Amino acid sequence: MTDRTRAWPRMTQASGPVDVSPDTLRAMQRPVLYHYDPAFLQLFERVVSLLRDVFQTRHDVVIMQGEAVLALEAAAASLVRPGTTVLNLVSGVFGDGYAGWIRKYGGEVVEVRVPYNEAIDPESVKMALDAHPEISMLSVVHCETPSGTMNPVGEICRIARDRGVITVVDTVSGLGVEAYSPEAWGIDIAVAGPQKCLGGVPGLSLVAVSPAAWAAMECVENPLRGSYLSLLDWKSSWIEQRRFPYTPSVSDIFALEATLEQAVCEGIDRMAARHQWVAAAARAAIAALGLTLWPARSEIAAPGCTAVAIPGGTSADEIVHAMRNRYGVMVSGGYGELAGQVVRLGHMGPTAHPTALFAQLGVFERALLDLGVAIQTGAGVGAAVERLAGWNDAAAG
Amino acid sequence: MTDRTRAWPRMTQASGPVDVSPDTLRAMQRPVLYHYDPAFLQLFERVVSLLRDVFQTRHDVVIMQGEAVLALEAAAASLVRPGTTVLNLVSGVFGDGYAGWIRKYGGEVVEVRVPYNEAIDPESVKMALDAHPEISMLSVVHCETPSGTMNPVGEICRIARDRGVITVVDTVSGLGVEAYSPEAWGIDIAVAGPQKCLGGVPGLSLVAVSPAAWAAMECVENPLRGSYLSLLDWKSSWIEQRRFPYTPSVSDIFALEATLEQAVCEGIDRMAARHQWVAAAARAAIAALGLTLWPARSEIAAPGCTAVAIPGGTSADEIVHAMRNRYGVMVSGGYGELAGQVVRLGHMGPTAHPTALFAQLGVFERALLDLGVAIQTGAGVGAAVERLAGWNDAAAG
Amino acid sequence: MTDRTRAWPRMTQASGPVDVSPDTLRAMQRPVLYHYDPAFLQLFERVVSLLRDVFQTRHDVVIMQGEAVLALEAAAASLVRPGTTVLNLVSGVFGDGYAGWIRKYGGEVVEVRVPYNEAIDPESVKMALDAHPEISMLSVVHCETPSGTMNPVGEICRIARDRGVITVVDTVSGLGVEAYSPEAWGIDIAVAGPQKCLGGVPGLSLVAVSPAAWAAMECVENPLRGSYLSLLDWKSSWIEQRRFPYTPSVSDIFALEATLEQAVCEGIDRMAARHQWVAAAARAAIAALGLTLWPARSEIAAPGCTAVAIPGGTSADEIVHAMRNRYGVMVSGGYGELAGQVVRLGHMGPTAHPTALFAQLGVFERALLDLGVAIQTGAGVGAAVERLAGWNDAAAG
Amino acid sequence: MTDRTRAWPRMTQASGPVDVSPDTLRAMQRPVLYHYDPAFLQLFERVVSLLRDVFQTRHDVVIMQGEAVLALEAAAASLVRPGTTVLNLVSGVFGDGYAGWIRKYGGEVVEVRVPYNEAIDPESVKMALDAHPEISMLSVVHCETPSGTMNPVGEICRIARDRGVITVVDTVSGLGVEAYSPEAWGIDIAVAGPQKCLGGVPGLSLVAVSPAAWAAMECVENPLRGSYLSLLDWKSSWIEQRRFPYTPSVSDIFALEATLEQAVCEGIDRMAARHQWVAAAARAAIAALGLTLWPARSEIAAPGCTAVAIPGGTSADEIVHAMRNRYGVMVSGGYGELAGQVVRLGHMGPTAHPTALFAQLGVFERALLDLGVAIQTGAGVGAAVERLAGWNDAAAG
What we know:
The structure is a homotetramer. In chain A, 44% of the residues lie in helices and 14% in strands. The first copy, chain A, has 16 helices and 13 strands. In chain A, α13 crosses α14.
């Protein structure tokens, strides 16, 4: 048992990171470059350009050298000062957590909160903004990966923009599952990560920053500069001078180039459609197995990750361990307040594909049987096979 | 369509080569060495030692620097001379083909032949040997990959050995699906390849040579030396002097080391059990889908590759193309005389695993539906899920 | 010209990152793991253990997920509060810069400063500490890579420790060039990076933290928690609960494991000796070419990077570009206030080796000739060849 | 000592294989494909097309799946029959060896022979052909790597072609050091390998076949078909039907694609010039060190490999071992009849570059000093630095 536990999994279909493509892995094999090598400067420039294509934006983009929580905190650290009032929308663990940074940097929190299997209603945002005209910033999570839910970020942010409120969106696992641009949706700071639906390697924050957001950062008291948390440092170094504030993670940048190239090559629309198709098939499987989706309604389910309520007689831990240790498939259990309540079947990046889904569902069925959960064998995979009729016409293979 | 055709598949589950493990791929990333570098000499020695472990033999082993047909021809070229009579057993395309080499090197062929969905009956071997006392060599294929069938090589070769007949076995896709040793089975020359059930990279022949076989090669008129086809060259160079007859394929040797290490680490018994479990599950799926196995009986089906008769209303080409082009799974159609008659679902090496099987079967079902074949969706994968009850106790994850 | 500029260099022998070993590159080829996969948890544990071996410490170690400036700022952010007085030692660009973080987090700076081609005199530290009994923290840079100089950190920190002053050492390019332990030298927070003399990949901070440093962080007003800059988060998550504060940079951790394994395998003493041998040979070459070392004395020259004053008639930029664009060798020019004044020949990690040194010096000679600098051809490499007599006895090949 | 011996070298600058480029190594990281996968068929087609570009030919090309001796023997096996008279030109070990295959396949050998430090005089070829009008085939080695010499193949083959004699040229280490086309030089069968001056991975034969050669193969008695040694098999399978005679070495083909792409990208003229520049600099170094070039004259020295006579007081083995074991540089000693007489400094493929040359020469000097050979330190590298003046104008960096 020890040996099998220690071994690498066959497939990583968790809530991110997930399996990355061979091309992305290969990209990290390129010799490490000195960051001021002309080849690296050109490559970094190209990566920035690809990132704008993937964000479908003409805003500036910044690649912060740390996992997305770095940029999420950086946004708060750059925009929030004592006296700032922020409307923080909470539909899950990450939304809830953002209040901590707002308070840490001295801000006041106004909260709109829904149960963790629900999504934020744009009407409630309107009401909160009307009730609190002092609100100057709004923070919201696009996809709440811990709950497998998705908020209507476009509607929400357009409401805020119309009122001159700066919007900060955690779209870490949202970029790639809906085709949007920050401009169209009214997002001032969009924070994504390569290791979720883009199918890349963790270690970087991908940020799109609107002119209004830059202006707001520069207008606060004591603008944040000279810090690992500073977005403005990247503006004054890379964007304005083609210098780096410090040594970037060279190999991760190589991987990011490959990840973004693949996204551009596939097309963001097609990538989003692919995630939506596979997620719909996963939900069909869950229903056919007689299990319960965690999100209250199918329409608010996240396309990157299907959260399933734990069936009676077993536990999240048992399911995760059985799938991983007996059959080599790594999925995620619950996180934060949802620990023990859900198991999450990831289908992000390269794993948002029928092959990975069938493998995952087959192993899920087998593991449930092993654990004594009564299911009709093959019903889950069968429903997914059924639901994917027409796949080829809608999405890239 | 062009673009999708051009793209790499998601999974290669054909009749070999198949997907190799990440560790094997990584091994080829090691810097190329000069073949007389001390590091390479040590490594080659280690590979030879690992190969003996995998063959479970104390016989000499030779790694010829070309795909297995090189060693199969080399065996004929080394042993057959005008006047040599060879009993050639034919239960499929490769068995049939071996007669060509026997004749090319001047030998007489005595043939025992069965239909290509059948296996050789050891009794018929006995009868042929009794009828032809002039026979000095026997050639047989362990697994006929084109037909997805398997011959009882152990029984056959022991019969031959008892009569002093030299046996040459094409176990190219047989090594790893049954746990055997050449000594126990009476095999004088066993020829395998890394790219089938060991899950390695094509380009090398793995050969185990008994003392009797060496003696026979040295006794023929004009023993074969000074040729790419010569086994004796490897004896007089590597085995006796730690020299190479010519530059070996350095990177392929790196890959082979990794492949063999993984085999030894898993254990040949467990590897064989793993293939047998997955093949049984594949056959259960075929039956549940109402399709017909190509081999006449389940007992003679090869554990590395399940050959399925083409259902009415479609064709092998259509199935292969639909699976590959729409869903990214590469399987094999028929080969040689079986072209158009079967589709072959490979489960060799790393693809002999429930995850790969479920993915393959789900895509197979989806493709059949696309092509208008009436199947009960989910029945195939469901039967495989069912059949794999107990997997963890019998085989490594 | 454009094409050549765009091309990858043959060798990266700059001030870090430098060329990494093939084994380190290959490690990043391993499939990305979910961070709570049992395989990743085991691997992370192993990396932490290897890091303690490399630091030769029994202190806790923390791997922060960003380049070393993250941990350097984190140390200030964790320890400095309004009212804290810090003795900041300045012998170069990085020492000078540290004052910025001290002030940013509210501290008072007492400074001991020497010219940028000099090293800090421990006596001056003693005097400053005596004159300012309110000092509770000291910050110093081990190797000032921009100047190619090295401070006597062991002597300095032991003086501070005797007075109960917490010491923070930037040993980013110092780990691996002298064999030391934080305990023996009296270092409370040692911050290193994989991408300098360990020869690894940039993107992580390697930190050794003494019990006294932990206590100090916990005693300040409003201890830093819940932030990307927090060291305490790592204590309460990984060290105490085997949880991560956020997703770590999985592939960079793979690379770090390989980097640390190589260091442990070589031995830190031998690694340090190797850097010292190669640096001595580089200095011999500079002298033989009639050029001027930037550091005032050979004894204070850094073993990882030889800074050379720019000879008359040319410029740092011209030398760097000629070496890079014509001969494919990337070295560094000056940085910060030393821009234009020096060229820096890096010999860190795998490039701290005679082969890399000879290549670099040959190209340096050729480039100087191309730029019209009068040198005696071969004198530099010849002196290095001479100086390396006995190499094999002292250092690993 | 054992540990160091076992370790990988830093640089492989032997007589081939040599260090390959990172891009070539990375190419082998691509997932293994089934050989009839549409992606592989397209890729193979592309490789064939690139190979014609590298050979600068419109002749058919064949990629045989084994190191170049396979194709060299295949040429003899395909063309030579009892009664065939072949003019075999011998200026070194490989030329001498070719007679073995001619005789093995039943031919008569007419020989022109020169000492192994000399080159064949085209006049002697003319005389031999005039004296033996029965000669229908000529065999010659382009670069005799064991001797570090080069024959005037263009002049020789044009003489043969004018007389209707089929020419077979071993240009294994010649492709890439002179820019030629088989058509221009009159070569009917040119056999090269990826692992020499193209800087690729060993394991394949690269063959260009003229229409006259195809015709000759088809006209002999019992044309060679159905064999690993058959060139005609490739004609009737790949060239005429896009089928493979057997499973090709998939990963080696990936590497070959990368190798050929790099060659085409650099340009064959520039690649040849690069080798010639570096070889000239190597010879200048040897002269400056007071050592003796093995080839009788500089004009006949091979551009890929400089053979140096062993100086008194030491031995080839001692030099090779000192360079390898103490300094990590692998070069070659003598081979065949030249064993013990020469040491060979390889500068092929990526190692045909100033950086690699300076590293190699510095280590060569250091090793000679270690062995007590009196040389002027730095004289060798200095002469090479001198000789490379103008490098940038003539050759790619």
